[in-house]
Amino acid sequence: MLKPAVQTTVQDLGRRGSRHLGVGRCGAMDPAALMIGNALVGNAVDAAALELCLPPASIRFDVECLMALSGAQCRARLDGAAIDTGRSVLAKAGAQLELSAAPDGARAYLCVAGGIDVPIVMGSRSTDLQTGLGGFEGRILRRGDVLRVLPPAGNARPTVCSAPYPAAGPIRVLAGPEFDEFEPQARTAFLQSSWRVTPQSNRMGFRLAGPELRRSVRDELKSHAVFPGLIQVPPGGAPIVLMADAHATGGYPRIATVIAADQGRLAQVPPGGSVQFTLCTRAAALSAWQKLLAFVHAMRSEPDAH
Amino acid sequence: MSASDVRIGWVSETAATLELRGDTTLENQRRIWMMAGELRARPHVREVVPGMNNLSVELDPAAPDLESLPQQLRECWLRSVPATPPTRQVEITVEYGGTAGPDLDAVARHSGLSPAEVVRRHCAGHYTVYFLGFLPGFAYLGGLDPCLATPRRSEPRFAVPAGSVAIGGEQTGVYPWTSPGGWQLIGRTSMRLFDAAAASPSLLLPGDTVRFIDAGGRA
Question: Mind listing the pLDDT tens digit for each residue in A233-289?
Fold first, then answer.
């Protein structure tokens, strides 16, 4: 790691099954991008990779390895030659990768064949920045850090991601348990406004700026489990979308939930960017997720995709 | 309590929450712990998270019985009886006041008691772990002496030291990690509340009874 991005962390698909102990999921903010990147280098979809938030960054490969960039479309050069996001390439020993600002997206993933080798903590290699669990010493990477790579699974060959991802359009949400408790104009405003992702947004949550969302019911909710994707509305009326590092429990009214297939798309909206929400059904949400998994799976089974 | 006293709804395409209407009681919370244990043993279950008077379950999107999750929660609730967990009593030794508990005087002032009386009452309580959340190993405890209830600080601290024993509103708890926090800090323990490498990483688990012991021996 010659020059880390503003926030570079080791992430896989996150920590599952420990939320009742207060342990957050963490993991890639854009799980689809991580899965695609891993597929491109022949890894299991949940192998650990580097999540680079807002390049520029500079990384040197001390050993030869197959690598791929996914997620945000950053400008990238490997030993001076331009390389594309969504395509795996062989980096020779000593090769230097330079990433410059992403014109499209906020988070890029650098996947290497074999995956990043850091200890598994409670079932995951993901970095939990709040507690320092997992990842590389539980922290954001710094200049000079040296990361090891696990042995690659097989004879992965350079591959190209054969379809554009992510799709455009508003972020799809399911109505939350308290959706109907918001005033009619608040529900309309929620679904028709363009929301700005404020600079106070991070891996824990995206704070959105827009019209004030007023709830017609005043009572406070008792503490309950919350999950990434949930959109809470604190009494101030400005929604917060919970992201990968969200706490395990919360207590604010839940107006909606971003569907799993679109959580990565939202994660790619940089601070200052805008998002719109549209309601969808659970059936559509599940089908969108299956479609995404099928796309990743097809890529893995067709290493010679054009 | 009958089926009409619960509300069950989806909170994502793969997770549903069962919420009990009305006040939180220890008996209902015991039924929630019972349900949590039963549901966690089922296949395709990703997360089972008890809350205060509620329980959330997340299934794998590929779970064959995903669509019946709300019915499963309802049936599980109706079948449930209050768990009688092996009552573990955990004693937490606390250094009260001074630099370990910089807000002890503020709690004393608010409650109209002397700092020594605040410590005595805090140590006299038998607390029950209702559920965990916020941070790994952070236990929401019921049983604080109402006299000790003190509002959160108007300005949260940027970094509350790990092990801090605190009061926030009508609750008391121990910060397992150094983190931002707005509760009133009355003391600190050197006990480790969370160890990711341990077979059971969290010192405190739902159903445990907690007692605080004054390291200074004033209790």
Answer: 998 999 999 999 999 999 899 999 999 999 999 999 999 999 999 999 999 999 999
Q: How many CB pairs under 8 A join A and B?
A: 125
pLDDT in tens, A78-130: 999 999 999 999 999 999 999 987 778 899 999 999 999 999 999 999 999 99
Q: What is the mean pLDDT of residues A210-227?
A: 92
Enumerate the residues of chain A whose CB falls inside 8 A of the CB of residue B25.
Answer: none
What local confidence, expressed as pLDDT, does residue B176 receive?
Answer: 96
- What does the domain layout of chain B look like in residue ranges? 3-78, 89-214
Residue A161 banded pLDDT, cuts 50, 70, 90: confident
CB contact under 8 A, B133 and A22: yes
Q: Which of B12, B54, B135 sits opposite A174 (nearest CB)?
A: B12
Distance separating alpha carbons of residues B130 and B142, to the nearest angstrom: 7
Q: Which residues make Cβ contacts (< 8 Å) with residue B140, sequence separation at least 6?
A: A223, B52, B129, B130, B131, B132, B133, B171, B173
Select from B8, B25, B44, B49 the residue whose CB has the most chain A CBs within 10 Å, as the one to mutate to test that interface. Answer: B49
CATH of B89-214, one of 3.40.50.720, 3.30.420.60, 2.40.37.20, 2.40.100.10: 2.40.100.10
CA–CA dist B47, B41 (Å, integer): 11
The CATH number of domain B3-78 is 3.30.1360.40: yes
Q: Which of B194, B167, B170 lies closest to B182 in space, CA to CA? A: B167
pLDDT (average), residues A207-213: 97
ipTM score assigned to the predicted complex: 0.94
In the numeric block, which tokens belong to residue A166? 């992510």
Taking CA–CA distances from A224, the nearest residue in chain B reads B51
> Which stretches of chain A sit within 8 Å of chain B by CB?
16-24, 121-122, 130-131, 133, 174, 176-177, 222-225, 227, 229-230, 247-249, 254, 257, 259-260, 282, 285-286, 289-290
Q: What angle do CA A33, A35, A38 make, to 5 degrees?
A: 105
Q: What is the pLDDT of residue B85?
A: 65
